[in-house]
Amino acid sequence: MKDLVSIITPCYNSAEFIEETIQSVLNQTNENWEWLITDDLSKDSTVEMIRKYNDPRIKLKVLEKNGGAGNARNNSLERAQGRYIAFLDSDDFWHPEYLETMTDYMQEHNAELVYCNYSRCDEQLRPILKDFLADKVVTFSNLLKTCRLAPVSTMYDTKRVGKFLFPVKSKREDHVMWLNLLKVIPEGIPINKTMAKYRMRENSVSRKKKNIIKDQYLVYKDFMGFSTLKSLYYTANWALNGFMKYSKIFN
Which InterPro entries does UniProt cross-reference here (predicted)? Predict the structure, then answer.
């Protein structure tokens, strides 16, 4: 039997999209997974919609207090029992072969972390930009300048590296977590195949690049412990790369 995959999902007011996300997991060709969903005290029908699915692999926990996506992901991570950690936000989507291809590739190439291409879509999952390509080996050094790792398209092996939690006081929590992980492993390996869809919602924080320059600066200054000058240098690189990555959708 294949090693267990733990899927980590935070959700908050996701009723509009959660059923598509659920179906993408239920359709996986690798069926040996557990899904740790942590609801951050949704005010809509998200929880009721998840509970309609009578599958023991879906393990829902509803928090008593809203604490943000990083806190919700950490709650799921703390409950995870699988060897492999995969991330899927409650409005994103995987192709059916995602889990099988990612885990098989990790085993075949003795990899500790892998990432794949993903489609950048609108709220109806229609592509609005070219696919983001997994075409470079990722290291701590090059991840400082631009975050090539997206939760929807990245997986790591806890047997090799342990678990990595998210900082709860950063709006750039995923970048900080990946950097901490890449401090202890030499590289992340690309799989140049599109197997995920990232939904770029109109109100997404990650789309408002101009509004999170300060948050990105704090990634380097507070979480990496860099000097002010070094932090400004990497923030400028990140901003330039971010503009090139999303320039067609900036207002």
Answer: Glyco_trans_2-like (IPR001173), Nucleotide-diphossugar_trans (IPR029044)
